[in-house]
Amino acid sequence: MEKHQQPYSVNDDYQFVQFPVEAVKWLKTKNLDIVISSNVVELEGDQQLIREVKLEWTTPKKFNITEI
C-alpha cells in the first residue's frame, strides 16, 4: 500500500489491516483472503454510529469493484 501511496491502518489487537476498497487492485498478485465490509452511518442523538451490515469474503484476484 505504501508503494502506491494508499492510506491504510493496522489493528494489532484484532490482527487486521484496513484500507479503501479501491486499493484491492494493488493486491492482485497476492495469494490471500480479504473481507469486504459494508457499513452504514446512523445518528443517535448527537453521535454518529457506524454499523457493519455485511461481510463478504473474497480474494484480490476474484474481487471486482463494480459488483459492490
Q: What do the pLDDT scores average to?
A: 90
Give the uncertain stretches in residue-range form: none
Distance between the termini: 21 Å
* Helix-residue proportion: under 10%
Indicate the overall shape: globular
Give the amount of beta strand, in percent. Answer: 35-45%
What order do the strands of the largest sheet run in, or round the barrel if closed? Answer: 1-2
Number of helices: 0
Order of helices and strands: EEEE
Largest sheet: 2 strands, antiparallel
Number of strand segments: 4
Number of domains: 1
**Rounded radius of gyration (Å):** 14 Å
Secondary-structure-based class equals mainly beta
SSE blueprint and pairings:
Elements (H helix, E strand, L loop, with lengths): L8 E3 L4 E3 L15 E11 L2 E12 L10
Antiparallel strand pairs: 1-2, 3-4
